[in-house]
Amino acid sequence: MNNKKIKKLVIIGVVAVFVAIIGFSCFTVVGAGQTGVVTTFGAVSDKVLAEGIHFKIPFAQQVIQMNNRTQKTEASGTASSNDLQIVSYVVAVNYRVNNTSSATLYKNVGMDYQNVVIVPAIQESIKAVSAQYTAEELITKRQTVGEAIKAALSEKISSYGITVEIFNIVNFDFSEEFNAAVEAKQTAQQNALKAEQDLARIEVEAKQKVTQAQAEAESIKLIQDALASSPDYIDYVKWNKWDGKLPSVMGESDILLDIDALPNN
Q1: Are 105 and 114 in contact (CB under 8 A)?
Q2: pTM of this prediction?
Q3: What's the angle, vertex CA 36, arms to CA 32 and CA 37, rounded to 5?
Q4: Could you report the per-residue pLDDT of 203-252, keeping only the tens digit for each?
Q5: Residue 93 neighbours by CB distance under 10 Å
Q6: Spatial contact of 110 and 116, defined as CB atoms under 8 Å apart
């Protein structure tokens, strides 16, 4: 094989490789749960590509993959309550980038939208809502507070095409002094409740005694009324007052009989 033929084969091989590269560069694949943002020489197109295979201009266009699945981020920090108590928080947020907003979000914010937009909005929302509640209410109304923070956060980031799906307060921590004050208050409330229950029990027992005494008085009055109208009333009184023992001395006029001195028979 002469040099001309070798040179020709090399050229053909190079051309084939170049054509293959060009061919592969004409197509792009957008993965599941993603959208493709098309840039032409750096300019971002408003049109986004759905999942699947798409044609693009080689070397001129580039397709950026934007994640439209549900994503999660956590944030922590401190905020102040309405009564100026410092609260340390840890929260978790599930969010999703809307498909139709992928190009705008990439153009205006870029790929690091989580740190640029979402986390700061979380911190601002928590501070704004926490300032509306006392420290105790942040504990007792935790669900209400969480819903209020979620609403405030959604309002802040919805303009970027980001939807808040779930907002969870992982933890609220307060100072040791506040925790001690809460514990002391709970103890005082428990003691007050116990005292109130004891007082209620005493009042019930007293009412029961009064009711019992009234019942006994009414019963005695009924008996007395019945006996007062009966000729046997005096005998009834005598028999009720008798202790069951016979008198030791019995007799009439001048004759007295000592019962105790009598024989057993």
Answers
A1: no
A2: 0.63
A3: 160
A4: 777 788 777 777 777 777 776 676 666 656 566 666 666 666 655 555 55
A5: 24
A6: yes
Q: What does DSSP assign to residue 41?
A: T
d(CA 102, CA 34): 9
Q: Mapping DSSP to helix (H, G, I), strand (E, B) and coil, where does residue 208 land?
A: helix
3-class SS of residue 57: coil
Distance CA 61, CA 43 (A): 9
Rg for the chain, CA atoms, rounded: 48
What secondary structure does DSSP assign to 90-124, as a single string? EEEEEEEE-GGGHHHHHHHT-S-HIIIIIHHHHHH
pLDDT at 228: 67
Pick from 93-97, 183-187, 250-254 the range whose average pLDDT is largest.
93-97
Categorize the per-residue pLDDT at 265 as very low, low, confident or very high, splitting at 50, 70 and 90. Answer: very low
Find where tokens 């919805």 sit. Answer: 158
Please report how many Cα atoms fall inside a 13 Å half-sphere around the Cα of residue 196, on the Cβ side. Answer: 6
